[in-house]
Amino acid sequence: MSDRTSLIVGNWKMHRDHLEAIQLLQRLAYHLSEEDTDEQEVVVCPPFTALRSLQTLIQSDRMAVALGAQDCHPEIEGAYTGDVSVPMLARLDVRYVVVGHSERRLFHEEDDALVARKARAALSGELRAIVCVGEGEQARESGRAEEVVLAQLRGSLDGVEPREDADLVIAYEPVWAIGTGRTATPTDAQDMAVAIRTALAERYGSERAADVRILYGGSVKPANIRSLMTLADVDGVLVGGASLSAEDFALIVGHRRAI
Ligand code: PEP
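^ Those are the sequences you sent over. The predicted structure of the assembly is below.
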């Protein structure tokens, strides 16, 4: 058994304006029990426009939920129209930032080198980086899933040095499972998590690698959360669609309780 703290992250993507975000978080908090947030971390990643409102709400209601951002720019400041920097996020009490999500890789043509720069910026700015990797359908079907994921991992961690306090998180998200209702089997998720941890150990040493939390993402729902959270090397989940329902996300967070 590891002593890694479980991590449940909701990625709201481009959904919910700041008023709707307040309602969603309030609803979620209503459904969460102390036990749910006692021994695991719960994080929500709203659009940038809702971060300030949720920061205020979390502080005023002393919610045991942390804020994450869905992306960041690798530079601290500059002429980068439309971008948001790590220090700006940190000022809003954002604790985590997702980098290299497959939708950023696809729609913004982000490559591993850029993802690595963002991850380095996050760690230098005292944020925790959630680095996403995952194979496409073709790679899975041709038996090249592990090769593709490990190559992505190496590229996305170029120059990234985690410290001891578990500031690096890897999210394994098979692209064919995101938003499709299809999930990796528990065996495939566990096998890939082991492959990722082995690669991390080769790079950082086994002690550091043991601190890195590995999440699974891809159509996580209340119905499949338990089978994922019992896997030895899967330390949590990154949830898209189901995190937009306070009730479903609360069931995912409360997976240890009877449903
Ligand atoms: C995601 O956006 O990272 C994700 C896993 O989405 P979904 O849960 O909807 O598949």
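Residues 11, 173, 178-179, 217-220, 238-242 surround phosphoenolpyruvate (CB under 6 Å). The beta strands are 6-11, 40-45, 66-69, 94-99, 128-133, 168-172, 213-217, 236-239.

Shout if you want it in another format.
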